[in-house]
Write a structure and sequence with these properties.
21 helices, single chain, Rossmann fold, 434 Repressor (Amino-terminal Domain)
Length: 442
């Protein structure tokens, strides 16, 4: 996400960093390029104007003129003003008597049903008892989608095509109350466009039950039209928060930057992929860092903690220090890394020079290399994975044929593994210096 905007802004900032002292002309020239970058990213013109005015006033003030590194100080100002534009974080409201009702509203194709699934999974992981309600009787596929998810995650789904949406949520609420459920998530019907019938139905639902949250789900890839949709819903019903979907497919990101400032409705979640775990709580500081190419180390750590098995990591670290790390363990590490999500997203979250270097690498090339490595190791016998010394020329030819690669690819993988072994041996001699604590270091 934000690839185009991040690349343009980094070009501007690189030039600022190289200047020891900044003149008013330097600042104005830089801000003209920032303005173009924001407009190309589909940021609303009113926000661009206000944002640049605030940045310029601060950039020409004492905090920059007296700074040891004026260029870095301007970047810091842009970062802080971007956080202000994105708005304060607004956590999900889960207060009041149970079940707390959350309405998911939006137009067709915005990702309501998928977002309801993701949010149910997220709340479930935090210990909440969740009930899903298929309140879209007009689209049978939406009901089936929720029911399939419910079966996989053991989450009950209330659905009844014979009832109106208002009667269904009333029945579901009574069941949720008697069953001791903490949260009731309602997937409502969408329309191809804003219309009075849709709004009347949503008002009817909200009148039967009192939602603690009414979340408007918007496809971020539609650009500034997202602002019109948000304003249309906000003018008709009470919207408490926004869920921006398909952020992973939006290289510009203008909707995410503009929507809070223009509509006044806080962003609560962003969808970053198709998988059920690809829903992030909105954090303006972390999003601003990602837009400016500073990475999101906290987000990366949270992702790692959610998918990595701490006990498995500890066991692998011990094997490394004992010289017992095998190709089998290496395969397990690759599988764990894949759980973090698409490689491009992980690269975006790496901070500093590491992130800048990573973004020069083609994620597709690396993922292809990963798939080859997995196929090669999986074509080995258990004995060969645990003892690579067995891999003579004939065995390597067999493995190459079995995994659909060239013998050179097998040789390259073994060479990389041997280099990793040497690195582990050096770390063992140094007592683990250079290896992070969470991976077995001192």
């Amino acid at each position: 996400m934000f690839e185009t905007l991040t690349a343009r802004l980094n070009q501007v900032f690189d030039r600022l960093r190289r200047r020891g002292k900044l003149t008013e002309a330097d600042v104005d020239a830089a801000l003209r390029e920032v303005r173009l970058a924001l407009i190309e990213a589909d940021v609303h013109f009113s926000l661009v104007k206000t944002f640049l005015s605030r940045v310029r006033d601060r950039a020409l003030g004492a905090e920059v003129s007296r700074a040891l590194n004026p260029g870095q100080q301007v970047i810091k100002i842009v970062h802080e003003e971007l956080i202000t534009a994105l708005g304060e974080p607004a956590p999900l409201n889960l207060t009041g008597p149970k079940p707390r009702v959350i309405l998911m509203v939006g137009l067709q194709g915005s990702g309501k049903t998928t977002s309801a699934e993701k949010l149910a999974r997220l709340l479930r992981s935090k210990g909440e008892r969740v009930m899903l309600v298929a309140g879209d009787p007009y689209r049978p596929a939406a009901v089936q989608q929720l029911q399939q998810l419910g079966q996989r995650m053991d989450i009950p789904v209330e659905a009844d095509a014979s009832l109106s949406a208002a009667d269904l949520v009333t029945t579901a609420h009574e069941k949720a109350e008697k069953g001791g459920f903490g949260v009731m998530l309602v997937d409502t019907a969408g329309r191809s466009q804003l219309d009075a019938e849709l709004m009347d139905e949503l008002r009817s639902l909200a009148g039967r039950i009192t939602p603690v949250e009414t979340l408007l789900v918007i496809d971020s890839m539609i650009g500034q039209e997202a602002l019109n949709i948000a304003q249309g819903f906000r003018d008709c019903i009470s919207i408490s928060g926004l869920v921006l979907t398909k952020m992973d497919g939006d290289s510009r990101g203008g909707a995410a930057i503009s929507i809070r400032s223009v509509t006044g409705v806080p962003i609560k979640f962003i969808g970053t992929g198709e998988k059920l775990d690809a829903l992030e709580s909105f954090d303006p500081a972390r999003l601003s860092s990602r837009i400016l190419g500073m990475g999101d180390l906290i987000g990366l750590i949270e992702k790692a903690e959610s998918v990595y098995d701490a006990q498995s990591i500890e066991q692998q670290a011990k094997k490394m220090f004992k010289g017992q790390f095998s190709l089998e363990d290496w395969l397990e590490q690759m599988k764990q890394m894949k759980k973090l999500g698409p490689l491009g997203q992980i690269m975006d979250m790496l901070p500093g020079p590491m992130g800048q270097a990573a973004r020069q690498i083609d994620p597709g090339t690396v993922e292809t290399s990963f798939r080859k490595s997995e196929a090669i190791i999986q074509s080995m016998t258990i004995q060969e994975r645990r003892n690579p010394d067995l891999l003579n020329a004939s065995r390597r030819r067999r493995i190459a044929a079995g995994s659909g690669v060239e013998v050179q690819d097998v040789n390259r993988l073994i060479k990389q593994f041997r280099e990793a072994e040497k690195l582990m041996a050096r770390m063992k001699k140094s007592g683990g210096r250079g290896l992070p604590q969470w991976f077995g270091g001192p």
